[in-house]
Specification:
Elements: H1 2-35, H2 41-74, E1 77-78, E2 82-83, H3 84-105
Antiparallel strand pairs: 1-2
Helix pairs in contact: 1-2
Amino acid sequence: MGDDKKMAWKKLLSVFGVFFLIMAVWQIVVLELLKNGVIGTMVAMILICAATVIIFGLVFALIRTLLDVFRQLMGEGTEAGGSGALKRRRRSLVRFRRISNISLRV
């Protein structure tokens, strides 16, 4: 089991390393274009900001996907059935509606 965890962490860290490498290369390319006068300062800022948002969005989506998979493996919930907390909220809402209907009738 320990080897599986180590391999999973290596894969995860390698994915984050690739995202970091892509971000670093993109910034170097944009800054070289800025230095050579091909693009202006505002365009360089917009390109770097857009790339940052896209990369962090991809990282967030990857983390969210991994967490969903871990939740399903741990049995805390599935996408079809919903999580345990969601089921409890639904039950309490149904109870509240029943109680409010009873009080309105009296």
